[in-house]
Amino acid sequence: MNASEIRQKYLDFQQSKGHKVVAPAPLVLENDPTTLFTGSGMQPLLPYLLGQPHPAGTRLTDSQPCLRLQDIEDVGDPRHTTVFEMLGNWSLGDYFKEEQIRNYFEFLTEVIGLDPHKIYVTCFIGNEEYGIPKDTEAAHIWKQVFKEAGIEAEICEMGSAENGDKRGIKGNERIFFYDDHENWWSRGGGIKTTPIGDPCGPDSEVFYDFGEDKQDVERYGKSHPASDGARFMEIGNQVFMQYKRNEDGTFSELEHKNVDFGGGLERLAAASMGSFDVFKISLMKPIIEKLEELSGKKYENNTDEMRIIADHLRGAYLLSAQGLVPSNKAQGYALRRLIRRAILKALDLGIAQDFLAETISTISAEYNSLPDSILTHREEALSVLEKEEKTFRSTLSKGLREMQKMVRKDADGVLDGNDLFKLQDTYGFPLEVSVEQAYHENIPLSKDYQKEFDAALEEQRNRSKTASKGMFKGGLEDHGEMSTKYHTATHLCLAALQKLVSPDICQKGSNITADRMRFDFNCDHKLTPEEIKAVEDQVNEWIEVDLPVQFDEYEKGYARDTLKAHGQFWDKYPEKLKVYTIGDFDNPTSREVCGGPHVEHTGVLGKFKIVKEESSSAGVRRIKAVLE
Description:
Blueprint: H1 3-16, E1 20-21, H2 46-49, E2 59-67, E3 83-92, H3 97-111, E4 119-124, H4 136-148, E5 154-159, H5 161-167, E6 173-178, H6 180-183, E7 184-185, E8 199-209, H7 217-220, E9 232-245, E10 251-264, H8 265-272, H9 285-295, H10 303-321, H11 330-348, H12 356-365, H13 378-409, H14 417-427, H15 431-440, H16 449-464, H17 481-500, E11 507-512, E12 517-522, H18 529-544, E13 549-555, H19 556-561, E14 576-583, E15 588-593, E16 608-617, E17 620-627
Parallel strand pairs: 1-2, 4-6, 5-6
Antiparallel strand pairs: 2-3, 3-10, 4-8, 7-8, 8-9, 9-10, 11-12, 12-17, 13-14, 14-15, 16-17
Helix pairs in contact: 3-4, 9-12, 10-11, 10-12, 10-13, 11-13, 12-13, 13-14, 13-15, 14-16, 17-18
C-alpha cells in the first residue's frame, strides 16, 4: 500500500468511527507567534484542545503537512526529514484510552496490514513527586489487545532511555514503561516544565520493529523502543490529555479528557512496505529516480545527497506554493536555506545544470490532493524557486572563477585563509562553500586555513572598531540591529548552558559587536564537542519557535525572590530594575536582570553558531558565536 492509499484509508477509517475530516492548516500560520512553521498535526487545533468548542464536533481527523527545521542536520539518515505529513485524530471530551488504542491497532493490523508481532508500545511510568500514577490503564488495554491478536505481551518497567540502552529487551516484553522524558506530553516538554493552566498527560507511543539486524549496539547500545538505533521506528503517538497544571504547580484531573493522536504518514508507509528507509516510499521514490536520471548515479551509492535534496525540495515547494519567497528573515530565510542546501548537494552529484524545473514538477504532482486554499501559489512556485537557484548559482560561479584566479597566482597552487576570507568578504562566497568547492576541484588548502581565515576576519573587525575598542557599555559596541540581536542571543546562550551543562553557570562577562558575541561564564571544564553542539541546537530550537521577548520594571526583592530572575550583582542593583523574559511568562526560557536592548521575538535572530570555545581565565570559559 503506497502513501497516498494509506492517507485515504486512514481518513476513511476515522470517518467510519464517527470523525469529521477537517482541512489541513497552512505551513505558515498567520496568528501563531510561537513558531515559524506548523510543526505538528495538533498545533492548529490547540485552541480546541484547550477547551474552545470545534464547529465540526468532538471527533476530528485530518492529514497535516508539517515542517521541523530542528532536524535539518539529521537529514541524510534513513528516517529523518524536515518535511512530513502527520495523520491525526482527536477526541475532544468524547472517547478516551480504550477506544483510541483499539482503533489504532485495528487500523495498523487490519486496514494497512502490519504484522502485529512487529508492533511494540510504550506507556508512562508515573511520577511520585507530582502525584501522577503509572498509566497502568493504557498498559492493561494494550496487553488485552495483544492477547486478542494471539500475542502474550509482557510488561517491562524500563524507566529512562539510558536504562534501556544498557538493558535491552528480554523474553516476550512488548509493553514498556518510560519516564516523562519519553512518555509525557505538555507544551513545555517534561512534567516540571508543564505551563500553568495547560492540559497535559501521559502518552502511549507505537513502534514498528524492522528486525534485530538493524540494531547497532556499539553505537546506540542495546535495542529497545526509545533507542536512537534503527531497529525500532515510531509510527504513532497517542496523547491522553487527562491532567491540568494548577497555579501552585500541582496537577489535577481534567473533567473533560482529550485524545490527541499523530502518526507520520511517511513512516507508516515505510513500515507497510517493510523498509526502514522512508526515502523509498511512494512520496519520495519518484524524486530519487529523477535525481538518478539527472546525475547518472545510483541512490545506493549517494544516499546522503539524494535524501537531503528530496527532503529539502519538498519543503521548498510547499513553502513557495503557499506564497513564501526566499529572504534573509524568519520563514523566508528558512526557505532560502532549504533551496541552497539542495543546490549544493546537487553539485556534489555532478548536476551542474539548473535542475529545479524537472525535480519540482515531480514533487508537485505528489501534492495535487492538497486544496488550493492551502497551496494558494502553485503556479508561481516554480518561478520563485528557479529565480533563487539562478541567483545562488551565479554567486557560486563567480566565487569559483575568483578561486581559480587565486590558485593560478599562488606559486604552490594553494588557497590560504586570507584567500578564503576575500572570497567571502568580497564575493559573498561562504567559507564552507569555498572549502567544499576546493575539494571538488582538487585545489589544496593551506594547513592552517581556518586559523588564517579567523585572523583575517578578526583584523577586519578590529579595523572597524571605534577608538573605544572593547569598552562597550553593557558589553555592547553599539545599539544597532545586529548588536541587539547578539545581545538577545547571549540570554539564550546562558539559558542553554544552565539547562544542558550546569544550573550553576552564570555570566562572567560579555563583549558584543555587530559581527559577533563573546560570552564568558564560570565552568570547571572545557566543553566537549557534544556539549557545544547541544547548546547550539538548543539555542537554535528556541530561535526557530520564535519565542516572545518582553520586559517590565520590578522592585529588586520581587525580581530576585519571586520571579527568580538571573542576576549577578544584586547588592549593586538599584531598588527598581528592568527584567527581560524570553518565552512564556509563567514558564520562561530565560529571565534576566538587564538594561537591554533586545529584539521583540527570537525568530529574527538567524542561525546561532559557536565558532570557538576556549579558556578566558582560571575557572572561566569563553564562547565566541555568530548569527548566520
